[in-house]
Predict the 3D structure of the following.
Amino acid sequence: MTMRLISVCIATYKRPKGLGDLLSSIDGQVLSDTTDVEVIVVDNDPRTAEPTVEAHAATGRFPVRYLTQASPNISLTRNAAVEAAEGELIWFVDDDETADPHCLRRLVETLDTFSADVVFGPVLPSFASEPPAWLRPLFDRPIHETGTPSQAFRTGNTLVRASALTRISGPFNPNYGQTGGEDSFLFRQLHRDELRLVNSSDAIVTETVPVERATWEWVRLRNRRQGQIYSRQIVELSGSLAAPESVIMLGKAAAQVVGWPIVAAVTWTNRGRRARFLSRMWVSVGKLEAAVDLVRTRRAPHIDRSTLHHTE
């Protein structure tokens, strides 16, 4: 019987409780008899997570390796985990997530069934304190049918063939290591290389949303930052602001900056719908800001880091 090794790669930063909960949920995975697991934890705040890892490793189900990466750069932290991984598959999960017991098995089944290179599973919010009803939908992410093409482009609950990561130097780009977007840039590159990226609808993790994030201001700044990062990536991958893909992206963003507030005004009495439309506007604002910054400075645009955690 041939065993298949899966490396669970975790980048962590000052979240010892969340990391402990994640490690416990990994131990609880229901797996096939031919699946073996190793866990690699890379601490971006050296030694903060060490007591948590040591306590878990003493009684845990799977072997855990603890590494440190001192530079404040999430790309370098993720790269250290990938470099240490020995499995043919790599499961990226974040230190504010916990996995359903069947999550990893379902990711693997989806990868095999659809001959995929990358599989993205759903990430559901779990609020430390329930937000207002009108705000809550802004934390929901769409769940797509298993096997359908995916553009989730994130590392939270993502299974990847290790061989796919060798196609990209790094593989996480250090230029995005302090702004976020290192994960979406990597998977955007793999998508452009025509690798198969698919969804798995029932391979679920939950993500803890702390009280300070469950606010309209945090959502606004998050969406603005996402727009800035998206614009930077499209310009970088297309080659210039004048490339057709960049021009189309910025033209749509300009129209949306005007259009979404009008739609929001029409639905002014419905606070939830108004917030949804305005949140989309802030993504477009971010796209235009990044483009203007690129023209003005002739270098990578400034990215608002106010909603960023090291392990995003």
In short: Residues 216-297 form one domain. The two ends are 38 Å apart (CA to CA).
